[in-house]
Design goal:
mainly alpha; about 70% helix
Length: about 170
Amino acid sequence: MDKKESQLKISNDVITFHVPYKIEEIIEKSPKQDLEITKDELINQAVNFHMSGNISEATKYYKICIQKKFENPIIFSNYAAIQRNSGKLKEAEISTLKAIELKPDFADAYSNLGNIQRDLKKLEEAKISTLKAIKLKDDCPSSYSNLGIILRDLSQLDKSEDALNKAIKL
């Protein structure tokens, strides 16, 4: 076999790639087809679309999960992030509060809630939410950074500097 032939040799290895379901496929599938998509598959699809940057599909999947009354804090927290990024701050606050209701020790949700409340100019509430996040998870630099920004906005500059220094240290 010469060099050119060896370069053209086709491998018999099979490579599989995870391809997220399209929303239309979910809607079209019925119990008759024995192709039911499980709760975990729906949630994973939503998260996979979200992580890959396909926000429109992620949104559709999160909405389906919410309509199906899946009580999963990740669904509500991630959906809130999409809502916040699209300027729907009040809706994002409600979704984040639902995530916290489902998982009261969800530090990241409290930190996100603090950011949303800061965006809504609810600075005292933002401070309380962010402090709760830190109480639950005191080694998270982003929570201290967020607290520093909130404290700056509250004109508590010494405390802001302390929080930001802690974020840098972490």
